[in-house]
């Protein structure tokens, strides 16, 4: 793990994860682009989405990932999140069988019963990846998949841009951010008994620049990534 302060170019005031996502809620759905995460999930070829009987959405937020999973045929879906206000938004979608307030590293969910666990756009807020990967592995049955989508460390380091949002006043606020190299993920996952089966990276391209014209200098740079792991 690298401290984000080494790369920070914006110097936004920084708040905790719980405070940040509580305050971001009102504009979250309109500012987080599908190009960041959902297009990466759709690109994965190693995960048999329709065959998933039971999935755990770790850091479910407003339920964006959960809605995508349901649309792909996932039969039963549980979710956890640290922020009560985000959970209220997820609950309103009526797509989860169970929702609970918990940390992604200590979910309280049943061990060894899930075909799939997902974590999307969460890992950059964690100082240590080890507990997350251990918890995901604990939840999975043998042969189950863990899919993580993350904010690419290259982009964080090159653009010096933390996860952030704008308050109604227009003030930009950063949410606590850490930089994890891809090798950090591999080490943490292997220690948890997971095997990498697929990885994809999302580059800044014309579609991204149409959404965020100020990102034109970062054309062809990776902005997000997904890794699919298998247990056992």
Question: What count of helical segments does DSSP give?
Answer: 8
- Name of the CATH homologous superfamily: Vaccinia Virus protein VP39
- Overall CATH class: Alpha Beta
Structural class: alpha/beta
**How far apart, in Å, are the first and last alpha carbons?**
26 Å
Taken from the alpha-carbon principal axes, the silhouette is globular
Order of helices and strands: EEHHEHEHEEHEHEEEHEHE
Percent range of helical residues: 25-40%
Q: How many domain modules?
A: 1
What's the helix and strand layout?
Layout: E1 2-3, E2 14-15, H1 17-31, H2 38-43, E3 54-58, H3 64-71, E4 76-81, H4 84-93, E5 98-101, E6 114-120, H5 130-139, E7 140-151, H6 153-159, E8 164-166, E9 172-175, E10 178-179, H7 182-191, E11 194-203, H8 206-211, E12 222-231
Parallel strand pairs: 2-9, 3-4, 3-6, 4-5, 6-7
Antiparallel strand pairs: 1-10, 7-12, 8-9, 11-12
Helix pairs in contact: 5-7
Explain what the structure shows:
With 232 residues, the chain is α/β, with parallel strands linked by helices. The model has no long low-confidence stretch (mean pLDDT 97). A 7-stranded mixed sheet has the order 5-4-3-6-7-12-11, with helices on both faces. A 3-stranded mixed sheet has the order 2-9-8, covered by helices on one side. A two-stranded antiparallel sheet has the order 1-10. The longest helix is centred in the first third of the chain and has 15 residues, at 17-31. It is built from 8 helices and 12 strands. The protein has one domain: Vaccinia Virus protein VP39 (Rossmann fold), CATH 3.40.50.150.
């Amino acid at each position: 793990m690298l401290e984000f302060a080494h790369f920070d170019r914006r110097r936004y005031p920084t708040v905790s994860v719980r405070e940040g996502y509580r305050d971001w809620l009102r504009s979250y759905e309109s500012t987080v682009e599908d190009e960041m995460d959902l297009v990466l999930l759709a690109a994965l070829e190693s995960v048999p989405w329709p065959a998933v009987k039971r999935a755990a959405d770790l850091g479910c937020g407003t339920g964006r990932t959960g809605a995508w999973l349901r649309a792909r045929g996932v039969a039963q879906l549980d979710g956890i999140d640290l922020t009560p206000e985000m959970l209220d938004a997820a609950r309103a979608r009526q797509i989860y069988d169970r929702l609970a307030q918990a940390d992604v590293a200590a979910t309280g969910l049943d061990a060894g019963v899930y075909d799939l666990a997902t974590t999307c756009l969460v890992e950059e807020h964690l100082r240590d990846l080890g507990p997350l990967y251990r918890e995901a592995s604990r939840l999975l049955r043998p042969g189950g998949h863990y899919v993580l989508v993350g904010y690419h460390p290259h982009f964080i380091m090159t653009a010096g841009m933390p996860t952030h949002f704008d308050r109604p006043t227009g003030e930009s606020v950063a949410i606590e951010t850490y930089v994890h190299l891809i090798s950090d993920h591999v080490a943490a996952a292997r220690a948890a008994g997971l095997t990498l089966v697929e990885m994809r990276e999302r580059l800044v391209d014309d579609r991204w620049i149409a959404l965020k014209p100020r990102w034109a200098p970062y054309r062809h740079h990776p902005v997000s990534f997904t890794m699919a792991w298998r247990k056992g």
